Predict the structure.
Amino acid sequence: MAILQEMADVLVVGNANKVKELTEKALAEGITPGNIIREGLIPGMAVVGERFKKNEIYVPEVLIAARAMQAGLGIVKPMLSEAEAAQRLGTVCIGTVKGDLHDIGKNLVAMMLEGAGFEVIDLGVDVVPDRFVQAVKEHSATHVALSALLTTTMVTMKETIEALADAGLRDSVKVMVGGAPVTQSFADDIGADGYAPDSGTAVDVAKELIGVA
Ligand code: B12
Protein backbone atom coordinates (compact mmCIF):
# COMPACT_ATOMS: atom_id res chain seq x y z
CA MET A 1 0.00 0.00 0.00
CA ALA A 2 1.34 3.40 -1.01
CA ILE A 3 0.66 5.01 2.36
CA LEU A 4 2.67 2.36 4.21
CA GLN A 5 5.57 2.66 1.78
CA GLU A 6 5.50 6.42 2.32
CA MET A 7 5.48 5.81 6.10
CA ALA A 8 8.59 3.62 5.80
CA ASP A 9 10.32 6.26 3.65
CA VAL A 10 9.68 9.14 6.04
CA LEU A 11 10.70 6.96 9.00
CA VAL A 12 14.07 6.29 7.36
CA VAL A 13 14.77 10.02 7.18
CA GLY A 14 13.54 10.50 10.75
CA ASN A 15 10.44 12.61 10.11
CA ALA A 16 8.47 11.84 13.29
CA ASN A 17 5.64 14.29 12.60
CA LYS A 18 5.00 12.79 9.18
CA VAL A 19 5.12 9.22 10.55
CA LYS A 20 2.53 10.22 13.18
CA GLU A 21 0.33 11.90 10.57
CA LEU A 22 0.50 8.92 8.18
CA THR A 23 -0.21 6.48 11.03
CA GLU A 24 -3.37 8.38 11.91
CA LYS A 25 -4.36 8.57 8.25
CA ALA A 26 -3.76 4.83 7.74
CA LEU A 27 -5.93 4.02 10.78
CA ALA A 28 -8.67 6.29 9.44
CA GLU A 29 -8.50 4.40 6.14
CA GLY A 30 -9.11 1.15 8.04
CA ILE A 31 -5.61 -0.31 7.88
CA THR A 32 -5.07 -2.48 10.96
CA PRO A 33 -2.48 -1.59 13.63
CA GLY A 34 -0.71 -4.90 12.87
CA ASN A 35 -0.37 -4.05 9.18
CA ILE A 36 0.88 -0.56 9.98
CA ILE A 37 3.63 -2.10 12.11
CA ARG A 38 4.47 -4.97 9.73
CA GLU A 39 4.28 -3.10 6.42
CA GLY A 40 5.17 0.48 7.41
CA LEU A 41 7.24 0.79 10.57
CA ILE A 42 9.22 -2.49 10.47
CA PRO A 43 10.36 -2.17 6.83
CA GLY A 44 11.45 1.42 7.57
CA MET A 45 13.53 0.35 10.58
CA ALA A 46 14.96 -2.55 8.56
CA VAL A 47 16.39 -0.06 6.05
CA VAL A 48 17.84 1.99 8.93
CA GLY A 49 19.45 -1.16 10.41
CA GLU A 50 21.03 -2.13 7.09
CA ARG A 51 22.42 1.35 6.49
CA PHE A 52 23.84 1.47 10.03
CA LYS A 53 25.47 -1.94 9.57
CA LYS A 54 27.16 -0.72 6.38
CA ASN A 55 28.31 2.52 8.10
CA GLU A 56 26.23 4.55 5.67
CA ILE A 57 24.57 6.27 8.66
CA TYR A 58 25.65 6.71 12.29
CA VAL A 59 24.23 6.70 15.82
CA PRO A 60 22.49 10.12 15.64
CA GLU A 61 20.57 9.18 12.48
CA VAL A 62 19.52 5.87 14.02
CA LEU A 63 18.28 7.63 17.14
CA ILE A 64 16.30 10.12 15.05
CA ALA A 65 14.77 7.32 12.95
CA ALA A 66 13.95 5.37 16.12
CA ARG A 67 12.16 8.42 17.51
CA ALA A 68 10.13 8.58 14.29
CA MET A 69 9.30 4.88 14.67
CA GLN A 70 8.15 5.49 18.26
CA ALA A 71 5.85 8.29 17.02
CA GLY A 72 3.91 5.70 15.03
CA LEU A 73 4.34 2.76 17.36
CA GLY A 74 3.09 4.74 20.35
CA ILE A 75 -0.25 5.22 18.58
CA VAL A 76 -0.80 1.70 17.25
CA LYS A 77 0.76 -0.48 19.96
CA PRO A 78 -2.08 -0.04 22.51
CA MET A 79 -4.58 -0.87 19.73
CA LEU A 80 -3.08 -4.23 18.83
CA SER A 81 -5.54 -7.04 19.31
CA GLU A 82 -4.34 -10.09 21.22
CA ALA A 83 -4.15 -12.02 17.96
CA GLU A 84 -2.00 -9.33 16.39
CA ALA A 85 0.24 -9.07 19.46
CA ALA A 86 0.74 -12.83 19.31
CA GLN A 87 2.26 -12.37 15.85
CA ARG A 88 5.27 -10.70 17.47
CA LEU A 89 8.52 -12.48 16.70
CA GLY A 90 9.31 -12.96 20.39
CA THR A 91 9.89 -11.15 23.67
CA VAL A 92 13.33 -9.83 24.56
CA CYS A 93 14.35 -8.85 28.10
CA ILE A 94 17.25 -6.46 27.61
CA GLY A 95 19.48 -4.65 30.07
CA THR A 96 22.97 -3.43 30.86
CA VAL A 97 24.51 -5.79 33.37
CA LYS A 98 25.23 -5.21 37.07
CA GLY A 99 27.76 -2.48 37.81
CA ASP A 100 27.51 -0.94 34.34
CA LEU A 101 25.68 2.32 33.61
CA HIS A 102 26.34 2.63 29.86
CA ASP A 103 23.08 2.48 27.96
CA ILE A 104 23.43 4.19 24.59
CA GLY A 105 24.28 0.98 22.72
CA LYS A 106 21.74 -1.04 24.71
CA ASN A 107 19.02 1.47 23.83
CA LEU A 108 19.92 1.25 20.13
CA VAL A 109 19.69 -2.54 20.22
CA ALA A 110 16.33 -2.30 22.04
CA MET A 111 14.95 0.11 19.45
CA MET A 112 16.12 -1.96 16.51
CA LEU A 113 14.63 -5.14 18.00
CA GLU A 114 11.35 -3.38 18.63
CA GLY A 115 11.47 -2.01 15.10
CA ALA A 116 11.99 -5.53 13.79
CA GLY A 117 8.83 -6.81 15.48
CA PHE A 118 10.00 -8.07 18.87
CA GLU A 119 8.31 -7.12 22.14
CA VAL A 120 11.08 -5.48 24.15
CA ILE A 121 11.18 -5.31 27.94
CA ASP A 122 13.90 -2.83 28.82
CA LEU A 123 15.19 -3.44 32.34
CA GLY A 124 17.54 -0.45 32.23
CA VAL A 125 21.10 -0.33 33.54
CA ASP A 126 22.95 -1.95 36.46
CA VAL A 127 20.65 -4.97 36.24
CA VAL A 128 21.43 -7.77 38.70
CA PRO A 129 21.18 -11.38 37.45
CA ASP A 130 18.08 -12.13 39.55
CA ARG A 131 16.23 -9.26 37.93
CA PHE A 132 16.78 -10.86 34.51
CA VAL A 133 15.56 -14.19 35.89
CA GLN A 134 12.46 -12.57 37.34
CA ALA A 135 11.71 -10.70 34.08
CA VAL A 136 12.12 -13.81 31.92
CA LYS A 137 9.57 -15.61 34.10
CA GLU A 138 7.18 -12.68 34.25
CA HIS A 139 7.15 -12.03 30.49
CA SER A 140 7.77 -15.58 29.21
CA ALA A 141 10.71 -14.13 27.31
CA THR A 142 12.18 -15.84 24.28
CA HIS A 143 15.45 -13.88 24.47
CA VAL A 144 17.66 -12.19 27.02
CA ALA A 145 19.97 -9.48 25.66
CA LEU A 146 22.88 -8.42 27.87
CA SER A 147 24.97 -5.32 27.26
CA ALA A 148 28.32 -4.44 28.90
CA LEU A 149 30.77 -1.66 28.08
CA LEU A 150 33.30 -2.24 30.85
CA THR A 151 35.78 -5.11 30.94
CA THR A 152 35.07 -5.28 34.69
CA THR A 153 31.35 -5.90 34.19
CA MET A 154 31.61 -8.45 31.38
CA VAL A 155 31.95 -11.16 34.02
CA THR A 156 28.42 -10.41 35.18
CA MET A 157 27.18 -11.71 31.84
CA LYS A 158 28.42 -15.14 32.82
CA GLU A 159 26.82 -14.79 36.26
CA THR A 160 23.52 -13.90 34.59
CA ILE A 161 23.65 -16.95 32.33
CA GLU A 162 24.39 -19.10 35.41
CA ALA A 163 21.47 -17.55 37.29
CA LEU A 164 19.15 -18.41 34.38
CA ALA A 165 20.46 -21.98 34.45
CA ASP A 166 20.00 -22.21 38.24
CA ALA A 167 16.40 -21.06 37.81
CA GLY A 168 15.80 -23.82 35.24
CA LEU A 169 15.28 -21.30 32.44
CA ARG A 170 18.41 -21.78 30.37
CA ASP A 171 16.84 -24.10 27.81
CA SER A 172 13.79 -21.94 27.25
CA VAL A 173 15.52 -18.66 26.50
CA LYS A 174 18.20 -17.54 24.03
CA VAL A 175 20.92 -15.34 25.49
CA MET A 176 22.56 -12.68 23.32
CA VAL A 177 25.48 -10.57 24.46
CA GLY A 178 27.11 -7.42 23.13
CA GLY A 179 28.86 -4.16 23.90
CA ALA A 180 32.20 -2.73 22.77
CA PRO A 181 34.54 -5.07 24.74
CA VAL A 182 32.50 -8.22 24.00
CA THR A 183 33.64 -10.60 21.27
CA GLN A 184 32.32 -13.76 19.65
CA SER A 185 34.97 -15.79 21.44
CA PHE A 186 33.98 -14.30 24.83
CA ALA A 187 30.34 -15.09 24.03
CA ASP A 188 31.31 -18.69 23.24
CA ASP A 189 33.38 -18.98 26.44
CA ILE A 190 30.52 -17.92 28.71
CA GLY A 191 27.96 -20.09 26.92
CA ALA A 192 25.88 -17.35 25.30
CA ASP A 193 23.78 -18.33 22.29
CA GLY A 194 24.55 -15.26 20.21
CA TYR A 195 26.75 -12.20 19.85
CA ALA A 196 26.51 -9.17 17.57
CA PRO A 197 28.89 -6.25 17.10
CA ASP A 198 26.12 -3.75 16.33
CA SER A 199 22.39 -3.23 16.66
CA GLY A 200 21.59 -4.04 13.02
CA THR A 201 23.33 -7.40 13.27
CA ALA A 202 21.67 -7.95 16.68
CA VAL A 203 18.32 -8.14 14.88
CA ASP A 204 19.66 -10.77 12.44
CA VAL A 205 21.08 -12.81 15.33
CA ALA A 206 17.89 -12.57 17.39
CA LYS A 207 15.90 -13.87 14.42
CA GLU A 208 18.40 -16.62 13.56
CA LEU A 209 18.27 -17.90 17.14
CA ILE A 210 14.57 -18.65 16.76
CA GLY A 211 14.79 -19.81 13.17
CA VAL A 212 13.19 -16.75 11.56
CA ALA A 213 14.77 -15.67 8.27
C1 B12 B 1 29.42 7.49 26.72
C2 B12 B 1 30.39 6.82 27.67
C3 B12 B 1 30.16 6.95 29.04
C4 B12 B 1 28.94 7.66 29.61
C5 B12 B 1 27.74 6.70 29.50
C6 B12 B 1 26.45 7.42 29.19
C7 B12 B 1 25.35 6.46 28.85
N1 B12 B 1 24.15 6.88 29.17
O1 B12 B 1 25.57 5.39 28.31
C8 B12 B 1 29.41 7.92 31.08
C9 B12 B 1 30.05 9.29 31.15
C10 B12 B 1 28.31 7.84 32.15
C11 B12 B 1 30.49 6.87 31.26
C12 B12 B 1 30.93 6.43 32.48
C13 B12 B 1 32.02 5.58 32.66
N2 B12 B 1 32.81 5.08 31.69
CO1 B12 B 1 32.39 5.21 29.79
N3 B12 B 1 32.36 5.49 27.94
C14 B12 B 1 31.50 6.08 27.17
C15 B12 B 1 32.00 5.99 25.71
C16 B12 B 1 32.65 7.34 25.38
C17 B12 B 1 30.98 5.70 24.63
C18 B12 B 1 30.12 4.46 24.85
C19 B12 B 1 28.98 4.47 23.86
O2 B12 B 1 27.89 4.88 24.18
N4 B12 B 1 29.28 4.10 22.60
C20 B12 B 1 28.30 4.18 21.48
C21 B12 B 1 27.42 2.95 21.43
C22 B12 B 1 26.43 3.07 20.28
O3 B12 B 1 28.25 1.83 21.17
P1 B12 B 1 28.19 0.50 22.04
O4 B12 B 1 27.77 0.82 23.42
O5 B12 B 1 29.44 -0.26 21.81
O6 B12 B 1 26.96 -0.31 21.42
C23 B12 B 1 26.96 -0.90 20.14
C24 B12 B 1 27.52 -2.33 20.10
O7 B12 B 1 28.49 -2.58 21.07
C25 B12 B 1 26.31 -3.22 20.21
N5 B12 B 1 25.77 -3.59 21.51
C26 B12 B 1 25.74 -2.89 22.67
N6 B12 B 1 25.08 -3.57 23.60
C27 B12 B 1 24.65 -4.73 23.05
C28 B12 B 1 23.91 -5.79 23.57
C29 B12 B 1 23.63 -6.87 22.77
C30 B12 B 1 22.83 -8.00 23.32
C31 B12 B 1 24.10 -6.91 21.44
C32 B12 B 1 23.82 -8.10 20.61
C33 B12 B 1 24.84 -5.85 20.90
C34 B12 B 1 25.10 -4.77 21.71
O8 B12 B 1 25.31 -2.49 19.52
C35 B12 B 1 25.47 -1.09 19.81
C36 B12 B 1 24.99 -0.28 18.64
O9 B12 B 1 25.58 -0.64 17.45
C37 B12 B 1 33.05 4.82 25.80
C38 B12 B 1 34.22 4.90 24.81
C39 B12 B 1 33.90 4.24 23.51
N7 B12 B 1 34.31 4.86 22.47
O10 B12 B 1 33.27 3.17 23.46
C40 B12 B 1 33.52 4.95 27.26
C41 B12 B 1 34.04 3.72 27.97
C42 B12 B 1 33.17 2.53 27.68
N8 B12 B 1 33.88 4.09 29.39
C43 B12 B 1 34.86 3.69 30.13
C44 B12 B 1 34.99 3.93 31.54
C45 B12 B 1 36.27 3.45 32.20
C46 B12 B 1 33.95 4.56 32.25
C47 B12 B 1 33.95 4.87 33.75
C48 B12 B 1 34.49 3.78 34.67
C49 B12 B 1 34.70 6.20 33.92
C50 B12 B 1 34.94 6.63 35.34
N9 B12 B 1 36.20 6.53 35.73
O11 B12 B 1 34.02 7.00 36.03
C51 B12 B 1 32.46 5.15 34.02
C52 B12 B 1 31.73 3.85 34.42
C53 B12 B 1 30.34 4.09 34.91
C54 B12 B 1 29.65 2.75 35.05
N10 B12 B 1 29.63 2.19 36.26
O12 B12 B 1 29.18 2.23 34.07
C55 B12 B 1 35.90 2.91 29.32
C56 B12 B 1 35.83 1.40 29.54
C57 B12 B 1 37.21 0.78 29.62
C58 B12 B 1 37.12 -0.68 29.80
N11 B12 B 1 37.80 -1.38 28.95
O13 B12 B 1 36.48 -1.19 30.68
C59 B12 B 1 35.59 3.40 27.86
C60 B12 B 1 35.93 2.36 26.77
C61 B12 B 1 36.39 4.70 27.65
C62 B12 B 1 37.90 4.46 27.65
N12 B12 B 1 38.50 4.37 26.49
O14 B12 B 1 38.52 4.38 28.68
N13 B12 B 1 30.95 6.45 30.05
